[in-house]
Amino acid sequence: MLAKKLKHLELTDVFIYLLGLAIVAVVIIGSIATLIQAKYALRAWFDLVLFGVTLGSIYALIALGYTLVYGILRMINFAHSEVFMSGPYIAYFVADAMSKAGLVEQNPLLTVIIIFIVAMLSSTLIAILVERVAYRPLRHAPRLVPLITAIGASFFLQYTFFRLFGPNLKVYPAINLFDASIAFGDFKITYLQIFVITAAGLLMLALHQFVQRTKIGKAMRAVSEDRETAALMGINVDNTIVMTFALGGALAGAAGVLYILVFNQVTAFIGFVPGIKAFTADVLGGIGNIPGAMLGGLFLGVIESLGPTLFLDGLGIAAPYQLKDAIAFTMLVLVLIFRPAGILGERLTEKKA
Amino acid sequence: MKAKVLFAVALIAIALVAVACAPAATPVPAFTPPADAIGTVKIGPSDPIHIAYMMVTSGADGSLGIDSRRGVEIAIDDKGGKLLDRSLKLDGQDSGCGAEPGQAAAAKLAADATILAVVGSSCSSEIRAGGPALSKAGFSVVSPSNTAPDLTDPAKRFAGYFRTAHNDKVQGAVAAQFALKQLKLKTAATIHDGSPYAQGLAGVFVDEFKKGGGTITAQEAVGPDDKDFKPVLTKIAAGKPEIIFYPIFIAAGSLITTQAKTIPGLEEVELMAADGTFSPDMYKAAGKSAIGMYQSSPDFSAFAGGYPDVLAKHQKKYNEKPLSAFHAHAYAAAMIIFAAIEKSRGEGSRWFVVHRSPSIARRDPKDEWVQGRNRHDHLRCERRLRRSQDRGVQSDRRQCEQTPDTRQAVLETVIACHCEE
Fold it and tell me: What ipTM did this prediction achieve?
């Protein structure tokens, strides 16, 4: 068996494996060096992981939108990052109005609920619009064509928002709902972190149940398996696809609200970086795979938060946080070297690929 | 091309330097014709005088450039929209506060041969990338807000470049001294975003702080588009600094401000930023967490002369408070350019010629600390320069009145304010 494998081993494979092992070695040596120096308290490590999980769960929510669409259409919906941005952007105007009316102070909970509803509805609507305008007319075109319209739709949305509402930062009113925190001995978790993580977790669970348990979910899975056969079985493929975009849009809108609860400000361009990260999370987890997207998001978030300190601090590299994206993407490469289809990725069948 | 004559727009620099360095009425060295005549711009009787801006006018840092552009617009209004009986035309490029957009903006400007001079750029990174193209095109460039130290370092400066902004050698030193002496702090951490401005300023702060007996616990760097600074702040917290100095821009600066105090171990830390975030936008974005933080910025009260006047005009024209700290510098930059163009007119001709050669920049200031002050209201230059007659140079003489102790004023340029609600 081993001999057979060795026989088929190519030089590039050897090189790539060595590269992978080198990365692993750097990670291990760096981590050990950092831990030996013991510069950071246990609490700091806990905090770093917590920040990573918080951000990672937002990445995961966005990633689900990419993965749902990929599962059904085998295409990357690059406009998804703008779907993510548009929800909180539109909800900002509602939040601002509520702030002026004094509602934010009086009833922060109601404010957050309204922001969620507005953002999720807006994102859903925009996701459906993008599907209708940019993808449906090209349903039977070669696969690269909708990819290009996706990029076009992405830029269109970005610059529409940019031109309509101006370049300035839109800062959400302070919502004093999640300011407090609970302490477990030395460890402290803010309500906001708890809220973001649970909300994201519940939404992901709900999506999973929806896809597995409901009729529409079944239809989605069927279309994903084989579009023609599904159509022959009486499934309305177009409606199912619209439903998929709507679901992804709603999740992106929710992710957007969680994002602004953490960072408090929107511009027309906030979607880009989280969008890329979420897409990376998808590839990490195995694209087209819902649990994979969640896992990938969390992994990426934690690596970004923890990686620079853990891997590089001990090696004496100055200002490691400038390299956090480099670290995140190196980890992507590392995962893909050893698991080309992603952490939970299935090997795509000929037909799907 | 052997210039009929002209007056370099670039002469402003000399004026500036003269103002800065020369004691009152000291004769300035004679002006020699530039050896490398880059070219002249012919302006017909109905052609406008074309000035361009190169500033960040969009994005999260847009208020920085828009504020400066307003300074130029007010200067144009003060001229009645006209110079030498021609209309003043202002347009420009958004230089995005980054190296790549800066380079793109500079390339577009350089392609327009009608431009006489450029006011800009906003961020040091833009001019570092785009400056050579502007210089090659023969433009004089006067920046209202580039503060990175090495931009006017004689060894690195590109021909034709001047600034009315202060140098971060001053700002960083004052910030460090303030932390050491006024706040009586001993340990500090710095964060920069990789831009020449932030990196330079943080570096000066570190040097001065160490020189003054302080300890630097961490020198961190982040990306300008980052949103989550809690990990890097957690790392900083391990060194237990008493103050964090983060001379970056509004988008990232406001987030560091809001996130810093939520980090265990940093609840009591002092926060200090610099002029890049000195804007109402910063307080809007950072909200309550900005209360009690420190910032350094130009102190316009040192320039009693024209500033209140400019401020009143600003209020009238835009109906809001200035967006950032550099409108006065930009006003000064524009006025200096106008003065230079006015002096460059070829007499008796229907058209006139302005020389755009930046050769003059070779006369480097001896003391870059005091280079390019915002002293336009004190700057009374009698500059009779070479005349535009066919037979060449007739006279070349200028005198600048010196204002009291420019250097002192420079050192006072940076103040820190303690914002109490």
Answer: 0.82
